[in-house]
C-alpha cells in the first residue's frame, strides 16, 4: 500500500505518465510496429500497458496520462477501459521522436495545470514483480522530487547484462532518505565490464523510470534541451483536443530533435538523483529477458501456448496458436505466430533487431504488421489471398461502425457469421443476421455497423484489379480518420 492518506498527502497529486511509444522489435515476431509488446499479455493475463497503469491506480494517484503513437490511440483507450482505469488522458504523438519530446509534452501539459504536480514517468512495457517494494521506492523518489531533483530508479543487477545502461550511485542525499546522488551514467557495457559492475555493487541498471515535478522537468529541459522544449511547446499550442485525446501539432512535433531524456537532460543536469531498488524489474527487452522473467520447469524450459518439448533444456518456446514441437534443443528460443516463426540461440536474443531490419529492407510486411490488424471499430485479418481476390474475417465491436466509404478497384461480398449487421448501400439500408449476405458492387457507397450487444463477425470476399488497403475513399468517419 502506498503511503499517504486518502485524498491527502504527497500522493494525491502524483500523476502517472505512461510512455507507450515503443515498438519492441526485439520481441519480434510477437511485437511489431502495428501492435507492439505493451499491448500483449506477457507476464500475466493483463497486457503490459494494463499492468503498468494498475500499479498507479487508486485514490493515491491522479488518473494517468498516456503518451502514445497516434495510430495506437484506440488500442490504448480500449485496454485502459477494459482494465477499469478511469479518467485517463491520451497524448498523441504524430511521429515517434524518442523519450525527451514525449516527456516534454507531458511536462508542459501538466505544468500548465499545476507546476508542483509530481510526475511519475514510466515505460508501458516493463515488468515489476514486487509492487509494494516499488511503492516504497516511489515514496523516497517523491521526497527527492519535491526537493527539486529528477529522481530515477536504479535497479539492483541480477546478472552482468550488456543490454542495459548503468548508473553509478554516489553519496546519499541529506534530507532525502533512500535517495543518492548520481556519480555517472555508463553506456551499455561489454560482458567483462558488466561483470565488474555487478561484482562491485555500486552500479545499478538504468530503468528509465523517473519522478520529478512538472516545473523541474520544464526548467531542466529549458536549460539543457531548449530546442526540444521550443518545438514541443509549439506542438502543444497547436494541439487539437478530441474527447480524452490531445493530438499534438504534427509539423512542430516532427521538427523536435529525436533524443532520449537520458542524453537530453539526465546526463547533463545537476538535479539528477537515484533511488536504488530491488523490485524484480525487467524491461522484457528481449526473448532472453522473457525467459529470465518467466516460471520454468525442472529442465529450465519456459513453454507458453500449445507447446510440446522432448529432451530439451533452457529453452523459451511460445506459440500463439499453432502446435509447436521441440526435440533435443538447448538454450534456444522458438516463437510461433500465425504468420512467422523465430528460432535462435538464447544468447543471440539481442540480434532479433538485425533480422527485423533485413525484413524491412526486403519489403516484407511481416516486419511491421500482424495478420490481424486492429482498427478503432474492432479488427480484421487476412485468410486467403490470390490473383484478383482475397478473403478476410472482420469483427466489429458492439455499437461501433466502419467509415462511410467506397472503392474504385474492388467489389465486396459480406457474409454474417455471428451477430447482427446494419449495412448502408447507397440509398438502401439492410439488416443482416447470421448466414445472411450482401453484395457491394464496385463504386457503391457503403457502411457497416454493429447495433447489437455482442461482437459482429463476418467474412468479406474482395474481388478486383487492386485490393490494397489504400483503395478506400472515406466520406464520413466517426473516428476522425481522413
TrEMBL record:
Entries under InterPro entries matching the protein: GMPP_N, Man1P_GuaTrfase/Man6P_Isoase, Man6P_isomerase-2_C, ManC/GMP-like_b-helix, Mannose-6P_isomerase_type2, NTP_transferase_dom, Nucleotide-diphossugar_trans, RmlC-like_jellyroll
Domain Nucleotidyl transferase: 16-298
Domain of life assignment: Bacteria
SUPFAM superfamilies listed in its UniProt record: Nucleotide-diphospho-sugar transferases (SSF53448), RmlC-like cupins (SSF51182)
Listed Gene3D superfamilies: Jelly Rolls, Spore Coat Polysaccharide Biosynthesis Protein SpsA, Chain A
PANTHER family listed in its UniProt record: MANNOSE-1-PHOSPHATE GUANYLYLTRANSFERASE (PTHR46390:SF1)
Catalytic reaction annotation: alpha-D-mannose 1-phosphate + GTP + H(+) = GDP-alpha-D-mannose + diphosphate
The Mannose-6-phosphate isomerase type II C-terminal domain, residue ranges: 363-477
EC number(s) given by UniProt: 2.7.7.13
Pfam families documented for this protein: ManC_GMP_beta-helix, MannoseP_isomer, NTP_transferase
Keyword flag Heme: no
Keyword field: GTP-binding, Isomerase, Nucleotide-binding, Nucleotidyltransferase, Transferase
GO molecular function, a single term: GTP binding
Ranges for domain MannoseP isomerase/GMP-like beta-helix: 309-359
Protein name: mannose-1-phosphate guanylyltransferase
GO biological process: GDP-mannose biosynthetic process; polysaccharide biosynthetic process
Family label: Belongs to the mannose-6-phosphate isomerase type 2 family.
Amino acid at each position: 500500500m502506498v503511503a499517504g492518506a486518502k485524498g491527502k498527502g504527497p500522493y494525491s497529486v502524483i500523476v502517472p505518465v505512461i510512455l507507450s511509444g515503443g515498438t519492441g522489435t526485439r520481441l519480434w515476431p510477437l511485437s511489431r510496429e502495428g501492435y507492439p509488446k505493451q499491448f500483449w499479455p506477457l507476464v500475466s493475463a493483463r497486457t503490459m500497458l494494463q499492468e503498468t497503469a494498475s500499479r498507479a491506480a487508486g485514490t493515491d494517484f491522479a488518473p494517468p496520462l498516456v503518451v502514445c503513437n497516434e495510430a495506437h490511440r484506440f488500442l490504448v483507450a480500449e485496454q485502459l477501459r477494459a482494465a477499469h482505469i478511469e479518467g485517463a488522458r491520451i497524448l498523441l504523438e504524430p511521429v515517434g521522436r524518442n523519450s525527451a519530446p514525449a516527456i516534454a509534452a507531458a511536462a508542459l501539459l501538466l505544468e500548465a495545470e499545476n507546476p508542483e504536480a509530481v510526475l511519475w514517468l514510466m515505460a508501458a512495457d516493463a515488468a515489476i514483480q514486487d509492487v509494494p517494494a516499488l511503492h516504497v521506492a516511489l515514496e523516497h523518489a517523491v521526497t527527492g522530487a519535491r526537493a527539486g531533483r529528477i529522481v530515477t530508479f536504479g535497479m539492483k543487477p541480477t546478472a552482468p547484462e550488456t543490454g542495459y545502461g548503468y548508473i553509478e550511485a554516489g553519496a546519499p542525499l541529506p534530507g532525502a532518505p533512500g535517495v543518492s546522488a548520481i556519480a555517472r551514467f555508463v553506456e551499455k557495457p561489454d560482458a567483462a565490464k558488466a561483470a565488474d559492475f555487478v561484482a562491485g555493487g555500486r552500479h545499478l541498471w538504468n530503468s528509465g523510470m523517473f519522478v520529478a515535478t512538472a516545473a523541474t522537468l520544464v526548467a531542466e529541459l529549458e536549460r539543457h534541451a531548449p530546442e526540444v522544449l521550443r518545438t514541443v511547446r509549439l506542438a502543444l499550442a497547436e494541439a487539437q483536443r478530441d474527447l480524452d485525446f490531445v493530438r499534438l501539432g504534427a509539423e512542430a512535433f516532427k521538427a523536435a530533435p529525436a533524443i532520449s531524456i537520458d542524453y537530453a537532460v539526465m546526463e547533463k543536469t545537476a538535479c539528477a538523483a537515484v533511488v536504488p531498488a530491488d523490485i524484480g524489474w525487467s524491461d522484457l527487452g528481449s526473448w532472453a529477458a522473457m525467459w529470465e522473467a518467466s516460471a520454468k520447469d525442472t529442465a529450465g524450459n519456459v513453454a507458453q501456448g500449445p507447446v510440446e518439448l522432448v529432451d530439451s533444456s533452457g529453452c523459451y518456446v511460445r506459440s500463439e496458436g499453432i502446435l509447436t514441437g521441440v526435440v533435443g534443443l538447448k538454450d534456444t528460443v522458438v516463437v510461433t505466430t500465425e504468420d512467422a516463426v523465430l528460432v535462435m540461440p538464447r544468447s543471440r536474443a539481442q540480434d532479433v533487431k538485425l533480422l527485423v531490419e533485413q525484413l524491412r529492407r526486403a519489403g516484407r510486411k511481416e516486419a511491421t504488421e500482424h495478420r490481424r490488424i486492429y482498427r478503432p471499430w474492432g479488427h480484421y485479418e487476412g485468410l486467403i489471398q490470390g490473383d484478383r481476390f482475397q478473403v478476410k474475417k472482420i469483427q466489429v465491436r458492439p455499437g461501433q461502425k466502419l467509415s462511410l466509404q467506397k472503392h474504385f478497384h474492388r467489389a465486396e461480398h459480406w457474409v454474417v457469421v455471428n451477430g447482427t449487421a446494419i449495412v448502408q448501400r447507397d440509398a438502401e439500408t439492410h439488416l443482416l443476421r447470421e448466414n445472411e449476405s450482401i453484395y457491394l458492387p464496385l463504386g457503391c457507397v457503403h457502411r457497416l455497423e454493429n447495433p447489437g450487444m455482442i461482437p459482429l463477425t463476418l467474412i468479406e470476399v474482395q474481388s478486383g484489379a487492386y485490393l490494397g488497403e489504400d483503395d478506400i475513399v472515406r466520406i464520413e468517419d466517426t473516428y476522425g480518420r481522413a
